[in-house]
Structures are given as structure tokens and as C-alpha cells.
């Protein structure tokens, strides 16, 4: 029997409804500052989508578009401005940055309480300690999607392919927090297919088009495809969906899977960050 398709678009729409409701309860609308440097076409599409959904949820869109040749000091000053601006409750620095800029340095400047991408050292530390904080959007979206699909994580074998700061590593930590037994694979993993076949829940986030085939999947497993690639034949993920769907129990499509959940979680983090700001103001 072919796999159940996990509908990320529907899950994201549901989540956005809840977020709009939460926004309406806040004393002030949250403000999201998306920072786009240069004109990478894929980044422009994602940022446009984030901004549109931010406005639809009743939040303020405080976008900054900066030239590709902006200097590091100048961009740092923009981040400092956004940190200091009380109307800005969330800051997202869209990656990748042009090559002459050091992303790690710039991310480190973001106020952790406004870090809606969950990428600052403070956010990473809070996640590692299980302390309250802002979690990276894509892994948080994957957990929300698994919960909604009724996938049990406690005691499950979870395998994550990829160990980036943006996706793989925080994904592994969130799965661990939910009491899964977690294996993390990467480019130096010796026998990827064997490692992946352990998985009750397989998360593909390696960034290689259709690299996960039916040989990587235990019959009945849940397969979450984080990858996103533009090819001549359209969008595809890291999973060869058509063949894997014959083996898996459930699978996320690309598009319409993890992508929409990433943006919904960004909105959710922006609401959380606005609550942090409220609490700080109340304490003053
Ligand atoms: N849908 C969404 O919302 C999002 C989608 N993405 C997509 O997810 C994918 C991953 O993104 P990101 O984590 O940023 O990518 P990175 O390129 O930063 O990381 C890729 C990871 O995969 C590992 N890897 C590479 N090749 C192999 C291989 N042959 N076997 C096993 N592991 C391998 C790398 O290992 P090593 O560390 O050893 O180099 C690395 O850890 C991309 O397609 C990206 O576009 C990303 C963010 C959000
Ligand atoms: N600081 C930072 N934070 C990020 O979260 C971040 C980033 N940089 N850089 C790039 C990746 C990629 N990413 C996606 C977001 C939405 C979709 C998405 O909505 N995808 C739709 C399709 C959209 C389309 O047509 O391209 C879908 O899968 O259905 C995909 C990918 C966030 N990223």
C-alpha cells in the first residue's frame, strides 16, 4: 500500500489560524524584520512569502533589503538598529549571505530574545539545556508535523541525515528531547543506507536531490523530506518520493511538506518573541 501523504500545507494553514488568533490577543502587534542581503532569487521568494504571511497574521512587516556589496560593519549596524527598535520583536537574517560577509559573526549580534530563527549562541545553548527559548523553525516545524500526523516519537528510532546548524543538529536535539533514540548521519557516514534503515522516523536534510531511495527506508517508516531543490522538472526534495512512497508508511511531499511549516513556525516564534518583549517591558 503506498504511503500516507503528510500534508504540510494544511498543517501550516491550521497553525497560522492559531497564530492570527494569538496575535489579536497581544497589546501590540509583533513586528518581524526580515533582512535580505543581495538578490539571490530563491532567498527573494522565501522572504516574500515570509513577509506576506506575517502581514496576513496581523503582524508588522519591517523588512530591510540591503545591497549585495554592503560592508560587514554597515550590516552589523543595521542589526544593532533592529535590536534597539522596540517595534521590531523578531529579526531574521536570511541565509546564505554574500561570500564576503561572515554569517556567524552577524548572527551573534542578534538579540537572543529577537532571534526568531533560533540560530544565536544563546538560542543554541537554551535548546541544548532544554531551557525556554526560540527554536530553529524548520526542525520545530517537523516536530509539529509529526505530532499532527500522530507519529509516536518516544522510544522510536529516529535517523537524521545532515548535521547543519540550521536543520540537522537542532532536529536531532528536538527528537532527543522527545525521547527518540537518535542517530545523526553526515557526509562521512560509512554506510548511509544501513543507518537509515534503522529508522522508524527518517529525516532527510542533506541537500542532495532525491538521494534517499527505497533502499534507505524500512517498510512502514515515516519519512520527512526537508530538502528543496529547483530542477528543470520543477521542485524536488532529498527523497525520491515516487519510489520511497512504495515502502514508507507516511511521507511528506515537496512542495507542500516541511517548507510551509518552516514559515508557520517563524510566525509562531515571532509571537513568542513578542511575549518575551512584553515581559521585559513589564519588568522595567
Ligand atoms: N524546507 C525548508 O523549510 C528548508 C529546507 N532546507 C533544505 O534542506 C536541505 C539541507 O539544508 P541545510 O541543512 O541548510 O544544508 P547544509 O548544506 O548546510 O548541510 C547539509 C548536511 O548534509 C550532510 N551531507 C551532505 N552530503 C551527504 C551525503 N552524501 N550523505 C550524508 N550526509 C550528507 C552534510 O554533511 P557534512 O556536515 O559532513 O558536510 C551536512 O551536514 C537543503 O536542500 C536546503 O535547501 C533548508 C532549510 C529549510
Ligand atoms: N536564516 C534562514 N532561515 C531559514 O529558515 C532559511 C534560510 N535562512 N535560508 C534558506 C532556507 C530554506 N527555507 C525555506 C522556507 C520555506 C520554503 C517553502 O515555503 N517551500 C514551499 C515551496 C516554495 C517554492 O515554491 O519555492 C514548499 O516546500 O511547499 C522552503 C524553504 C528557509 N530557509
UniProtKB/TrEMBL annotation:
It catalyses: (6R)-5,10-methylene-5,6,7,8-tetrahydrofolate + NADP(+) = (6R)-5,10-methenyltetrahydrofolate + NADPH; (6R)-5,10-methenyltetrahydrofolate + H2O = (6R)-10-formyltetrahydrofolate + H(+). It comes from the Bacteria. SUPFAM superfamilies: Aminoacid dehydrogenase-like, N-terminal domain, NAD(P)-binding Rossmann-fold domains. Residues 6-117 form the Tetrahydrofolate dehydrogenase/cyclohydrolase catalytic domain. Its EC number is 1.5.1.5, 3.5.4.9. InterPro entries: Aminoacid_DH-like_N_sf, NAD(P)-bd_dom_sf, THF_DH/CycHdrlase, THF_DH/CycHdrlase_cat_dom, THF_DH/CycHdrlase_CS, THF_DH/CycHdrlase_NAD-bd_dom. Residues 136-275 form the Tetrahydrofolate dehydrogenase/cyclohydrolase NAD(P)-binding domain. NADP(+) binds at residues 162-164, 228. The keyword Oxidoreductase applies. Gene3D superfamilies: Leucine Dehydrogenase, chain A, domain 1, NAD(P)-binding Rossmann-like Domain. It holds the Pfam family THF_DHG_CYH_C. Keywords: Amino-acid biosynthesis, Histidine biosynthesis, Hydrolase, Methionine biosynthesis, Multifunctional enzyme, NADP, One-carbon metabolism, Oxidoreductase, Purine biosynthesis. Pathway: One-carbon metabolism; tetrahydrofolate interconversion. The keyword DNA-binding does not apply. Belongs to the tetrahydrofolate dehydrogenase/cyclohydrolase family. Homodimer. Catalyzes the oxidation of 5,10-methylenetetrahydrofolate to 5,10-methenyltetrahydrofolate and then the hydrolysis of 5,10-methenyltetrahydrofolate to 10-formyltetrahydrofolate. This is Bifunctional protein FolD. The lineage of its organism: Bacteria, Bacillati, Actinomycetota, Actinomycetes, Pseudonocardiales.
Amino acid at each position: 500500500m503506498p504511503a500516507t501523504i503528510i500534508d504540510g500545507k494544511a498543517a501550516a494553514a491550521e497553525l497560522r489560524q492559531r497564530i492570527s488568533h494569538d496575535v489579536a490577543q497581544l497589546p501590540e502587534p509583533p513586528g518581524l524584520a526580515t533582512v535580505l542581503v543581495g538578490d539571490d532569487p530563491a532567498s527573494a521568494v522565501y522572504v516574500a512569502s515570509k513577509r506576506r504571511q506575517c502581514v496576513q497574521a496581523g503582524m508588522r512587516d519591517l523588512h530591510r533589503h540591503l545591497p549585495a556589496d554592503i560592508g560587514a560593519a554597515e550590516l552589523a549596524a543595521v542589526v544593532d538598529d533592529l535590536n534597539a527598535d522596540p517595534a521590531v520583536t523578531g529579526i531574521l537574517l536570511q541565509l546564505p549571505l554574500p561570500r564576503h560577509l561572515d554569517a556567524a559573526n552577524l548572527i551573534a549580534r542578534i538579540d537572543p530574545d529577537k532571534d526568531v530563527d533560533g540560530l544565536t549562541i544563546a538560542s543554541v545553548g537554551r535548546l541544548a539545556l532544554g531551557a525556554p527559548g526560540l527554536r530553529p523553525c524548520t526542525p520545530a516545524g517537523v516536530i509539529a508535523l509529526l505530532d499532527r500526523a500522530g507519529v509516536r516519537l518516544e522510544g522510536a528510532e529516529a535517523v537524521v541525515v545532515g548535521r547543519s546548524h540550521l536543520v540537522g543538529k537542532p532536529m536531532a536535539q528536538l527528537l532527543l528531547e522527545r525521547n527518540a533514540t537518535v542517530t545523526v548521519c553526515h557526509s562521512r557516514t560509512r554506510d548511509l543506507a544501513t543507518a537509515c534503515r534503522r529508522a522508524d522516523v527518517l529525516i532527510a536534510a542533506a541537500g542532495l536531490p532525491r538521494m534517499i531511495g527505497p533502499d534507505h527506508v524500512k517498510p512502514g517508516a515515516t519519512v520527512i523530506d526537508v530538502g528543496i531543490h529547483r530542477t528543470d522538472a520543477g521542485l524536488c526534495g532529498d527523497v525520491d518520493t515516487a519510489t520511497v512512497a512504495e515502502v514508507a508508511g507516511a511521507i511528506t511531499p515537496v512542495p507542500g511538506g516541511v517548507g510551509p511549516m518552516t514559515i508557520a513556525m517563524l510566525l509562531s516564534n515571532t509571537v513568542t518573541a513578542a511575549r518575551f518583549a512584553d515581559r521585559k517591558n513589564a519588568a522595567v
